[in-house]
Design goal:
The structure is a single chain. Helix content is 71%, strand content 0%. It has 15 helices and no strands. It has helices at residues 2-35, 42-75, 81-108, 136-157, 164-184, 191-195, 203-221, 242-261, 270-302, 307-322, 330-353, 362-380, 386-414, 421-426, 428-433. α4 packs across α5 (164-184), α7 (203-221) runs antiparallel to α12 (362-380) and α7 (203-221) packs parallel to α13 (386-414).
C-alpha cells in the first residue's frame, strides 16, 4: 500500500530522472574504469611475497638468538649467567658483521665447487628495483641469521670455563670463514650439491657444523672442575633456572618455523604456500614427538622425568626434521622427531663416560641429532640417497672438526682458552664480565 502511494506521487519527474541516469551510466562506467588502480603483475606479486617470506623468516630466526641466550642462562650456574648472555649478544653481532665482510660472498658468489669469493657483499641502492625472484638484501638477511645459530651451539657447550676473548675470536673465524665455506658446498651450488646431497634447512650445514666446532673446543678445553672425579664418577652440576631454560626452548621452537618454513625460499604460488604450511606442521610434530619420547624414556630409565632431557628432546626433534621437513608424512615426522628425543637421552650419558663436558647438551642435540636427521632424508625423499648423504656428513664433519681444532689449538697456545681455577670457582660473571646476574644471591661468589 505504501509502495503504490509513493510510486504514483513520483510521477513523470521521477521517470525522467531515471532515464537521465540510465543515459549517463556508460560515461560513469568509463570514468570508473579509467580510475581503477593498476595491479601488480603475477611475477611482481611473487617477488613481493618471496621477499616477505625471507624477511619474516629472518626475524623469526633472529629471535632464536634470544632463545639460545635464555636456554644457556638457565642451564648454567648463577655465577656464570651474565657471561652467557654477553656471549650470545656478542656472537650474534659478530656473525652479522662477518657475514657481510666476507661470509656471504664466500658462500654464494661465484662458487667454484669448494669456495666462493673473498669480498664484502652489497645490495642495490635505495629506490632501485631489484632483479630476480626476491630482493637482494632480504636474501642476505635471511642467510645471515642462520650463521649465528651455529656459533650459539658452541657457546653453550663451552660454558662456565672458557675465556671471553678467545671465544669471540673463534666466532669471527667460524662465522666469517668455516661456516660459509662449508655452506657453499651445498647451498652455494658447490660439489656436494652437484652430487645430490640433500639438506633442506641445515641439519648438517648449520647444526652439525656448530656441533663439530663445539666438540673440538670441548676436547681441548677440558671439563669443568668437579664434573668428573678421579675414580670416573660423574658429579651432576644443575643449572640455575629451569624457567629461563624452558622459555628459551619455546622461543627456539617458535623461531624454528622461520628456520624451516622460510627455507622453502618461495611463497609466490598456491603450491609454495601450501608446502610452507606443511613444513610448519611437520616441524611442530617432530618437536612434540621429541618431547614425548624423552619424557617416556627418562621415566623408564631413571624412574623420574628430567626436565633438561625433555627440553633438549624438543630441540633434538627440531634438529632432526630440519634436513627434510617437507616430504615426510605426519607419521614419519613424528618418528623422525621421536628418534631425535631418544638420541638425546642415550647420548648425554655416553658423553659423560667419555669425559666430554657439554654444559647444555648441544652436542647430542645439534651434532648427533643433526646427523640422524640428514641420514633420515632418503626415508621420505626419493631424490636423496644414503650414500651421498653419508659423504656429505663425513665431509662436513672432517672439515669443520679439523679446522676448528687447529683454530682452538692456536688460541690455546697464544692466549689460553681457559680461565684460572680461582676464576672458575668465583664465576665468570665476576672474572670476565664484572656484572653479576644475581648479586643478591651470591655473597660468597661460590654458588
Amino acid at each position: 500500500m505504501m509502495y503504490r502511494t509513493l510510486k504514483s506521487a513520483a510521477g513523470p519527474l521521477a521517470l525522467g530522472g531515471l532515464a537521465l541516469a540510465a543515459m549517463s551510466f556508460p560515461a560513469l562506467a568509463q570514468d570508473s574504469a579509467e580510475a581503477a588502480p593498476e595491479f601488480a603483475s603475477a611475477s611482481e606479486t611473487a617477488f613481493i611475497f618471496n621477499t616477505l617470506l625471507f624477511l619474516m623468516g629472518g626475524f623469526l630466526v633472529m629471535w632464536m638468538a634470544a632463545g639460545f641466550a635464555m636456554l644457556e642462562a638457565g642451564m648454567v650456574r648463577t655465577k656464570n649467567v651474565s657471561m652467557q648472555l654477553l656471549k650470545n649478544v656478542a656472537l650474534y653481532s659478530i656473525a652479522g658483521i662477518m657475514y657481510w665482510v666476507v661470509g656471504y660472498s664466500l658462500m654464494y658468489v661465484d662458487v667454484s665447487n669448494y669456495i666462493g669469493t673473498f669480498a664484502p657483499y652489497s645490495w642495490p641502492a635505495a629506490g632501485t628495483a631489484n632483479e630476480g625472484d626476491y630482493s637482494v638484501a632480504s636474501d642476505w638477511f635471511f642467510q645471515m641469521v642462520f650463521v649465528a645459530t651455529a656459533a650459539s651451539i658452541v657457546s653453550g657447550t663451552l660454558a662456565e670455563r672458557i675465556k671471553l676473548w678467545p671465544f669471540l675470536i673463534f666466532v669471527v673465524v667460524l662465522t666469517g670463514f668455516i661456516y660459509p665455506i662449508a655452506g657453499s658446498w651445498k647451498w652455494g651450488a658447490g660439489w656436494l650439491d652437484a652430487m645430490g646431497f640433500q639438506d633442506f634447512a641445515g641439519s648438517t650445514l648449520v647444526h652439525s657444523v656448530g656441533g663439530w666446532a663445539a666438540l673440538a673446543g670441548a676436547l681441548l678445553l677440558g671439563a669443568r672442575n668437579g664434573k668428573f672425579a678421579s675414580d670416573g664418577k660423574v658429579t651432576p652440576i644443575p643449572g640455575s633456572n629451569m624457567a629461563l631454560a624452558t622459555l628459551g626452548t619455546f622461543i627456539l621452537w617458535l623461531g624454528w618455523f622461520g628456520f624451516n618454513g622460510a627455507s622453502q625460499l618461495t611463497m609466490g604460488t598456491n603450491a609454495d604456500a601450501s608446502d610452507i604450511s606443511r613444513i610448519f606442521a611437520n616441524t611442530n610434530l617432530a618437536a612434540a614427538a621429541g618431547v614425548v619420547a624423552a619424557l617416556i624414556l627418562t621415566q623408564i630409565l631413571y624412574k623420574k622425568v628430567d626436565i633438561t632431557f625433555v627440553l633438549n628432546g624438543a630441540l633434538a626433534g627440531l634438529v632432526s626434521i630440519t634436513a627434510e621437513p617437507l616430504t615426510p608424512s605426519p607419521f614419519m615426522a613424528i618418528v623422525i622427531g621421536a628418534i631425535g628425543g631418544v638420541i638425546v637421552v642415550l647420548t648425554v650419558p655416553l658423553l659423560d663416560k667419555l669425559k666430554i663436558d657439554d654444559v647444555v647438551g648441544a652436542i647430542p642435540v645439534h651434532l648427533i641429532a643433526g646427523i640422524w636427521g640428514t641420514l633420515a632424508v632418503p626415508l621420505t625423499n626419493s631424490g636423496a640417497s644414503f650414500g651421498v648423504q653419508i659423504v656429505g656428513i663425513v665431509a662436513y664433519g672432517v672439515f669443520t672438526f679439523v679446522v676448528s681444532f687447529v683454530v682452538w689449538m692456536i688460541l690455546k697456545a697464544t692466549m689460553g682458552l681457559r680461565v684460572s681455577p680461582e676464576d672458575e670457582m668465583s664465576g665468570l660473571d665476576v672474572a670476565e664480565v664484572g656484572v653479576e646476574a644475581y648479586p643478591e644471591f651470591m655473597p660468597m661468589h661460590g654458588r
